[in-house]
Amino acid sequence: MLYYLSDYTEGAHPRILERLQETNLVSQPGYGEDRFCAAAREKIRAACGKPEADVYFLVGGTQCNAVTIASLLQRWEAVIAADTGHINVHEAGAVEFTGHKVIALPQREGKLSADTVRDYCARFFADETHDHMPFPGMVYISQPTELGTLYTKAELSALHAVCGEYGLRLFVDGARLGYGLMSPAADLTLPELARLCDVFYIGGTKVGALCGEAVVFPRGNAPRHFFTLVKQHGALLAKGRLLGIQFDTLFTDGLYFQISRHALEMAARLKDLFLRKGIPLSVDSPTNQQFPILTPAQMQALDGKVLFEVWDTLPDGRAVTRFATSWATTEQQIDLLAALL
Amino acid sequence: MLYYLSDYTEGAHPRILERLQETNLVSQPGYGEDRFCAAAREKIRAACGKPEADVYFLVGGTQCNAVTIASLLQRWEAVIAADTGHINVHEAGAVEFTGHKVIALPQREGKLSADTVRDYCARFFADETHDHMPFPGMVYISQPTELGTLYTKAELSALHAVCGEYGLRLFVDGARLGYGLMSPAADLTLPELARLCDVFYIGGTKVGALCGEAVVFPRGNAPRHFFTLVKQHGALLAKGRLLGIQFDTLFTDGLYFQISRHALEMAARLKDLFLRKGIPLSVDSPTNQQFPILTPAQMQALDGKVLFEVWDTLPDGRAVTRFATSWATTEQQIDLLAALL
Amino acid sequence: MLYYLSDYTEGAHPRILERLQETNLVSQPGYGEDRFCAAAREKIRAACGKPEADVYFLVGGTQCNAVTIASLLQRWEAVIAADTGHINVHEAGAVEFTGHKVIALPQREGKLSADTVRDYCARFFADETHDHMPFPGMVYISQPTELGTLYTKAELSALHAVCGEYGLRLFVDGARLGYGLMSPAADLTLPELARLCDVFYIGGTKVGALCGEAVVFPRGNAPRHFFTLVKQHGALLAKGRLLGIQFDTLFTDGLYFQISRHALEMAARLKDLFLRKGIPLSVDSPTNQQFPILTPAQMQALDGKVLFEVWDTLPDGRAVTRFATSWATTEQQIDLLAALL
Amino acid sequence: MLYYLSDYTEGAHPRILERLQETNLVSQPGYGEDRFCAAAREKIRAACGKPEADVYFLVGGTQCNAVTIASLLQRWEAVIAADTGHINVHEAGAVEFTGHKVIALPQREGKLSADTVRDYCARFFADETHDHMPFPGMVYISQPTELGTLYTKAELSALHAVCGEYGLRLFVDGARLGYGLMSPAADLTLPELARLCDVFYIGGTKVGALCGEAVVFPRGNAPRHFFTLVKQHGALLAKGRLLGIQFDTLFTDGLYFQISRHALEMAARLKDLFLRKGIPLSVDSPTNQQFPILTPAQMQALDGKVLFEVWDTLPDGRAVTRFATSWATTEQQIDLLAALL
What we know:
Shape of chain A: globular
Distance between the termini of chain A: 15 Å
Helix content of chain A: 40-55%
Low-confidence stretches of chain A: none
Radius of gyration of chain A: 20 Å
Strand order of the largest sheet of chain A: 2-8-7-6-5-3-4
Oligomer: homotetramer
Order of helices and strands of chain A: EHHEHEHHEHEHEHHEEHHHEEHEEEH
Strand content of chain A: 15-25%
Structural class of chain A: alpha/beta
C-alpha cells in the first residue's frame, strides 16, 4: 500500500531516533527543564534571529492552538480565522471549549486578507452595540494554509499592520511551517515571520518528529505563568526531554529545513505527475500537500493500492483529494503512483 | 424624546404591577417553588396544549439561550444557527463561554431553511474526518427572527423533520414570541410550535414584563437536574415569585396576547407611515420591529427628538434603522413621529 | 403558616413597589444605561465615600459571585474561601463552571482568618512545585457570614493586609450586607468596608428588593469590559431600570439601613425568645439569621405551623435550624412563634 | 549527579527504543487507528481479562484525568478525591478548568475510605438544599497513591460498593499502576482492578515509556464519541503509533511488570538503606516512592550530589523528601547513595 494519506504516517527521521538512543540514559529533570530543551530553545532563537524569544515545547497542534489562543485572549475576546482555518473546522471545537468564539471570515485559497480583517474590525467598532459582542482579539492564520497555499511577505506584513491598528495579536499556526519556509514559492524567512507576528509555532509532528511543536513568543512575550497554563490544559509533558531532543536534532545542521526540502521535492514531482496525466489540481499548492481532482476511473485504479484523503465529491462524481509527502516519501513511491495512474 | 429604541424601554404592563402589589405580603418559598410559579406553569401548559410540559422561569434571554443550549448539548456537540442569529452575534459569546461552538449558516431574511441544515448535516456525516469536528447537535432559531420575519408552519415543520433525521434538538428563541404568534402574517399557533420543537421560551421582558422568560420543554423533556444547572449558571432567581407572578398575570385572560396585538397594531401603523412617506424598509417585517432606511436628512429631522437603533450605514450614506413598538407605544407617539418625518 | 424560611419569602419593601409604579411610563434605554441606575450609582458611591467607584447592578448573588470572581481572576488563579463559604457549598459549582478552583480553608464560626490565608500562601510559594498548582488569586468572604457572624474591622484589616502581601484581591459577598452594617455588634462602616476590599456587593434581594445586587469596585477598578463579561455570563438585565429604581429607592433616605435595622430588631427578639425558652443557639449570631437547636418535641410543635430551614441533625436527634427575619417580619409573628414554643 | 528526583528522569526502556527503530518505516494511519495501537489494545484487554474493554492511548497523566473526568461527569456533577489527590493538588486546576468541582475529602496515608465517601454522600442527599450543590458523580483515587501507599482489594471493593450505592463512577489513576500491582504488599491483580472500577489508566510515562497512558473502560463503557472529546481537549496524538508501539512493547512478554518489579526492588533497597541508617520514613510506602525524613546534616551531605524532591520542612528543620526509583535505577546508584549518607 502506498501512503499519501498525510505527512505523519511513518515514525521519525532516523537522526531523531539515533539521538533518542544516544541520550537515553542521561538523567535530566522533567517538564521541559532539561538541557535538551534548553539547547533546542537556543537553536530556535538563533534560527529566528530572536535571542529574546520565549520557546515552549508542546505535544500536538490542536493543543498548541487551544492553549496559546486561550492564554493570549482576554475573556471578552474572540479569535478571527479563515472559515477554512483548522481551528474553525477540524479541532472538534477545542477553542470554543476554552470559552472563546472563533469568528470565521471568508478567505481566498485558504488565505485571510488584511482587508477582510480590517473591514470586520472597522464594522465591529462602528457598531453601537459592539459591547454586546465578542471583541476581536487575535488573528489566527496557518502558514502554509490548510490548502497548501502561502502568505507572501507583503500579505503577512499587511496582516501585521491591521493587527497593530486594532490591537489584535497575530498567531501563525506553523504545523507545516518547514514546507512554507523552504518552498520555492516562499518569499518569507523565519526571522521575518518571527518579526511579523506575536506568536507562532514550528511544527515537528508533520516535519519529521514523532511528536512535538515549538511555540515561539518572539519578543519574550509569553503570557505570565504560561507554564502553569500549559499544565492546566493537560499539555505539559513529564518527559519534556522527548520534545527537547527532537527539536535540538531538527535544528542541528539544518535538519528541519533539509526534511522540508525533501518533502517539497517529492511534492513537486507529484504535481508534475498529475499535470502530465492531465489531472487538474483543485488549488495550486506550492507546498507538500497536493489536491488532485480524480475521476471515478482514476479513483478505482488507485483503490486498495494507494491511500490518500478524499476532501470533497463534486457534482460530476469526481473527487477532490489530498496527497501529502514527507521526509519518508521516496522517488520510488512517486514512480509507483505514476505507474498506477 | 420619542422612544422607539426597543420594546423594553418602559416598566411593565400595569396589570403586572398591580399583581405585584396585591401579592406582596404573601409568604412563599423561593427558587420557583412558590404557588405563583405553579399557577403560571399550569396556565402556560394549557396555552401550549401540553399538560406534560416542564416549565422553568429564567430572568433574561441570553441567559435562557446559554443555559438551555449548554444543558441540551452533549459535550461534543455544537449548535447550528443563522449567521444573523442572536446567539451568533449579540450575546458576547455566551454560548461559546459554555464550551460549545455556534455553527453559523447562511439565512434568508433572518430565516434558516431546512435545506441549509440538511445540506450541512449531510456533508458533515459524509466527511470521513467528521470525528475531528464538532457534531451538529441542535438547531437554534428565533421566532420572530432578529429581522422581524416569521417562520411559517411549513418551514418550522421542515426544520422539525430535518432535526429528526439527524438527531438534532430544535430550540426556538421566543424572546418576542407574542409578536410572532399574533401577527396577521402568522400561520402557527402556540400548540403547533410546542409540538414542532424540543424546547422554546416565551419571552416576557420584551412583551410587557419587567423581566423573565419561560423556558418550555413541551414533552416533559427537561434535562435531568435542570434546576441545578440553572443555579450553576447563576440564573436561579431567589425570589422566583417575581417571575411566577408576572407570567401568571401574562397568561391570565390572554394578557400576553393582548399586549402582543397592541404592539403589532402600532407597528403596522409605523410601517404604513414609513411607506406613505416613501421610506423603504430594509426587510418586510410583519412583527413589532420595523427597519426603515432613512436618508441623512431624515436622520437629522429626528435627531434629538426620536430614539431608535442604527443597524448599518449604506454606501450612499443612508442608514438602516430599527424602530420597535411595545405595550407602551401609543397612537399619539406614531402621530408625533409622522409629524417629524 | 409562619415564614422564617429565609429573608426572601415576600415581595419587596412597599416603597420599592411605589417607585416602580411612579416611574413605570418613563422611557429609558436598557442595559443599565438609564437614569435610575445613574442616580443609584451616585447614591451608592456617596454612601461608600467613594466618588470614583464603579457600580454595576446584577440580578442575583450566585451570578455576582461567578461573574466577579471569573472576571478578576487570571486563568491560572483560584479563589480562597472558608470551607463554609457560599461559593464552596451552595452555588452548584458556579465558580468551577467558569474554570476556577475554590480553595476551601478552615474557618471559625464561618470566618476565615488572615493567619489561615497567610499560612496557605506562605506554604504555596515555598513549595518548589507550585507552578503545577492553581495560584491563590483572591480571597472571598461573606459579611455577614453564612453563619450570621461578623468580621470585625480588625479582622477585615488583617485580611486586607495579607491580600496586599500576596497580591490577592479581596472580595466581600454582601448578600446580607445591611444586616452586617447595622448590627449592634458591628464595628465596621460601609466606607471602611469599601476601603478595605477590592470589590464587594450590596445585596438587594435579601434586604427588601425584588431582586438585584450592586457590585462595587471601590477604586474605579472594574475589570476592562466588565459590561461585556456580564453579558457573556447571561447576567445583563435588559430592563436595567428594574435594578436602578430599586437601588435608587433603597439608598434614598436610608431605606436600606432602615430595612436592615428592622430585621435585626426582629432577630434580636427571636434570639431572646429562644434563650428565654432555654433553646440553645448553634452559633451566637448578631445578625438576621438565628440558629436554634430544637428538640424533636419542639420540631413537632412547630410542624405544619412554622417554616424554617433544617441545617443539620445531631446524633442526639436534635436539629440545627435556621430562622431568618426580614423587612416583612412583624412583632406579631414573633409572638405567634413564642406561643407555639 | 545521582537522580532520585522522579521516575521520569531518563528516556525509555531500551526495548521500546528498539521497537521504535524497527517499526519506523512502517506506514500507518494516524490518530490511534494504526495496527500497533490495535495490537496494544488486544494485549491490554487480555492482561485485564476484559475482552470487551475500550482502550484509548493518551499522552500524559493530567490530560487523562481531565479528559476522562470531564467526559464521564454530567454537568451538574463533581468528582470526589482525597485532599492529597493529584487532581486536587498538582494539576493546576485542570479538572476545574473543564467546569467541575473537586470535592476534597480527608484521607489516611493518601487513601480515601469507603466510609468517608458514604458519609459524604449520605449527608449530601439528606440535605434539603442539595439541589443547590454540585452532585457527587465520581470517586477518583490513585493506585498507588501520591504517598506511595496501596489500596487493598477489600478497600477497593468497599469503594466499588459505595459507588454502586450512590451511582458514582469509580476512576483509578494508575500513573504508577505497575508499582502498585507488582509490590509484594499488593493483594490486587489487574483483572480484579478492572472489575472493581469504571475506568482506570495504566501509566506508561512513569513505568518505562517516553510518554503515554492507556485509558481503559473495562466494560466497553467509554463515553460516546470519546475520540472527539479527546480531540477537543487537544489530547489526540497525530502519530498515535508512538503510543501504540510503546504499549505493545510494554505488554509483550510482561515487560511492563518486569520494569515495575525492578523499580520496586531498587526501592526496597532504598528503604532498607534509610532504615539501616536510622532515617525515619514519613510514610511506610511499599512502592517505588520512598519518603525519608532527612536532617539538615544529611541534606547537606547530599547537596550537589543527589537530586530528590523536598516535600515539606518540619518545624525542627528536618525535611520530608521523596526518592523515586524506575527501570533506570541501578544497584550501583543505591550503593553510591549509601556511601554518601
